Amino acid sequence: MSLLLSLAMAAATAAQPACGADAIGTSRTLTLKREAAAWGTAQHAPLPTLAPGEVVLSFDDGPRPESTPLVLKALAEQCVQASFFMNGEPLRANAALARQVRDAGHSVGMHGFRHEHFPQLSTAAQLADLDAMIATYRAALGAEPAAWRFPFLEETPTLLKALGEKAITVMSVDAGAEDWLPEQTPQMLATKLLGQLAKSGGGIVLLHDAQDQTARALPFLLQTLKARGYRVVHLRWE
User: Fold this and answer.
1) Residue 222's pLDDT is what?
2) Residue 104: how many other CB atoms lie within 10 Å
3) Residue 107, CA distances (Å) to 99, 145, 147, 235 in order
4) Are 32 and 60 in contact (CB under 8 A)?
5) Taking the model in full, what pTM does it have?
6) Cα separation of 175 and 60, whole Å?
7) Quick one: pLDDT at residue 20?
């Protein structure tokens, strides 16, 4: 091994956060192909190769300067990698924060340019939103998007067809904490999440980094998941 390679590897190791035994960590990374697939048992098949007790953490609606950095901090402190499904308008307004999410090792997908009820829109309006979202993603992150989650999980034939033609994977969910509802304590969110995970056995977890209460509760939620024996899987695309 060359000296330069050794130094690069040492620097990369030093850059990794030091997590203690009490951190939940990331147990493994699941890499998916860029293809017209759809996952999440709320609407589709379960994520392939995910074992009982494994969870994929995902966050919608950001990036938001008031709350997303707190989510990133909580994830870093627990050595957890997650997936962020961003809306185009806040992505365009906060491109540097979106790059911070990506540079921290998290996966970034799309959540619609505007958080629309797509079944209520015309075919042309739906496709225009998708085009705007893809263009914003490319401009902010300098890459091609691989995944999409429908706002409100409201799928439409128009967008399913368009996403399939672009080999973009649709991500639904398996469990969540209903953290968009107001005035919830960390314990309330944890109780809801554990209740849904008890039914699903694990899977894709839906949270929202645009919610202040979620950002504040995340350290407790991660500790609770670890205490109950859940293992975090990081989702990436080739």
Assistant:
1) 98
2) 15
3) 11, 10, 9, 7
4) no
5) 0.92
6) 14
7) 77
Rounded Cα distance between 2 and 14, Å, is 18
pLDDT at 6: 36
Query: 183 burial class (0-12, 13-18, 19+ CB within 10 angstroms)?
Result: exposed
- Residue 175 structural domain: 36-42+54-237
Number of domains in the chain: 1
How far is Cα 16 from Cα 126, in angstroms, rounded to an integer?
41
Which residues, given as ranges, of the chain have pLDDT below 50?
A: 1-16
Which tokens is 50 given?
Answer: 């995910």
pLDDT at 93: 98
Tell me the torsion sign for CA atoms 28, 75, 69, 178.
positive
> pLDDT tens digits, residue range 10-31?
333 333 456 778 899 999 999 9
For residue 49, is it within any domain? no
The token pair at 110 is 């799309």
For residue 105, the domain's CATH number is 3.20.20.370
> Where would I find the H helices in the chain?
3-15, 68-77, 88-93, 95-103, 123-141, 157-165, 186-200, 212-227
Measured CA to CA, the distance from residue 97 to residue 72 in angstroms comes to 10
What is the token pair recorded at 122?
């015309």
pLDDT value of position 18: 65
Which of 133, 137, 165, 135 has the alpha carbon at shortest distance from 151?
A: 133
